[in-house]
Fold Pseudouridine synthase.
Amino acid sequence: MARLILLNKPYGVLSQFTGSADEETLAAYVPIAGVYPAGRLDKDSEGLLLLTDDGQLQHQIAHPSSNKKKIYQVEIEGIITDEALQLLRKGVQLNDGLTRPAQVKRIAKPAGLWDRHPPVNARLNTSWIELSLSEGRNRQVRRMTAAVGNPTLRLIRASIGPWQLEPLRPGEFKEITVNMPVSAKAKRGGTNRTNMRGRTRTKR
């Protein structure tokens, strides 16, 4: 059995348990020993961050070969054009290569969205898109939207694979117990399927 923590990481919090005296870390939100982030979420991004105490599960979630779909709700500067949407769908040329095709659509501001501190500059003309990726390059969403002329102003990760952010509020977490069966293939160094059913516990 593995522990999996689903955390709504607030803006400005590092995706690690230690930092300098003036930095806020996960230690302020996850009072559970022995769990570590499975992947990262930038300090200036918000939303779903997964943590686990199981190295195999951590690898399955975080390794690029897992191809787990990640969905982001993104507030951008300006109104994105149809041409820009098509570029994102086909793949954008970045300095580290062409991105994989993405799913993207215009959306309204997410219902029930919490305020961010500091807020996005109210004088800017902004809109929202939903972007789904199956890769995880460094600051990829921000670089992709900038490449098509719509810089990212606010970034919220809404899901990773089957795990959803809702209904967690900033700083809240939910704990899931995950069954990690050890198959004969796994014993020989292969991979095995993960049973993601289990109990949940939410901290408020």
Notes: The CA atoms of residues 178 and 196 lie 5 Å apart.
